[in-house]
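User: Is it possible to get a 3D structure for a protein together with its bound compound? The compound here is nickel (II) ion. I've pasted both below.
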Amino acid sequence: MSEFFPDVPGPVPFIGIDGEGLGYRVYDSDQMVGDKSMADHLRLAVCYWHSFNWPGSDIFGDGTFDRPWLARDIDPMRAAEAKQDAAFEFISKLGARFFSFHDVDMAPQGASLKESRANLDAMVDRAAAKMSQTGVELLWGTANLFSHPRFAAGAATNPNPEVFAHAAAQVRHMLDATHRLGGHNYVLWGGREGYETLLNTRMRQEADQLARFLSMVVDYKRTIGFEGTLLLEPKPQEPTKHQYDYDCATVHGFLDRYDLLGEFKVNIEGNHATLAGHSFHHEVAYAIDHGIFGSIDANRGDHQNGWDTDQFPTSVDELVPPVYEILRGGGFETGGFMFDTKLRRQSIDRSDLFHGHVGGIDALAKALLVAHKLLSERTLEGERDRRYAGWTDDLGTQILSGSLGLGELADRAVAHNIDPTPVSGGQERLENEINHAIWSTS
Ligand code: XLS
Ligand code: NI
Ligand code: NI
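Assistant: Yes, that's possible. Here is the predicted structure of the complex:
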């Protein structure tokens, strides 16, 4: 088998901050940060789809990338094998521990569900061999329930139950495949689970269908003994005008309403958070505080436009707050930082795929160091403790425990003429503390 990335002959080295050429300037996999190595904190993963299954096309133009296995005139199974070889060569040279894939990224779709399953099984067997040779693990598997025209009106939320059945078959196969490969999680992203217009849509009916689908997934997971985490990936829109898994709070409410809390966590994507009008920080903090934090699709958007540009996350300023919350929450359990990232269409050198990932990984590593410093020095926790101190005193605990009603509380406020003096929120001082931590951490 010939190498696809001959310009990067071996594993990408750690070269340090002044190093030259392709190498990690901050990410040193074995360096301890607190009680865990950088590799164990970050649990880095590469995605199969944007990196190997996308030719660099956009809505106005064809593919620009050099991905020989995507040519139309070659046998689909041989092409899938070449793609898999390139993917595993890349992941091992990069030094990432994990990867993630959709059914259709790894194996060609056949003329029937049976044939698609056979193709997938063959490629999954081959992937299992590659994984044991390289030590690469599966962070998560997922089924693509959004590209094929049959899913235009949704998968689980389709008005036609036959589409629901087709989606069930794909998800069953991918759960089996994920289980077979020892996957740590299984993701469901509902890109078409939503509506284009309410004129033809029964919103409540579609929510009931989606909940039924998710319950079936939970039952099946138990039947086969899959112990990974089930993850829902929120996104407010794109490709559908309005998607039901809008953001973490919406997903949380949905899970609660349908008695599915505890069965699913969330896979939060940086660029989806900003599309929902939130910061990445907000989405992570919400999930951590409500016990549904699972994993991250690491990427960023572009501040000047409003779609999912899936760029490599290069801004330490933007990464510090979410990474801080993850550390505060105790870090990943089964999740990790999965690079759901695309090269720009003009980045056509094979080595560009390395540069994109290496830059994003270094930015995450730097954010990790800064977040660890902020947490161990209790810079933000100290401030938060002071700000909420009243809630651990008599008045606060009595209010929260329910021992005071509105009338008694009002009487007490009147009797003692409770009239607190406002205190500063200190936002600018805290922003300066974050910058100081960034500038002083090496
Ligand atoms: C698209 C999603 C997708 C999921 C996997 O916006 O991010 O890539 O992560 O289906
Ligand atoms: Ni994603
Ligand atoms: Ni996305």
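The chain has a mean pLDDT of 97. The chain has two domains: 32-376, 391-440.
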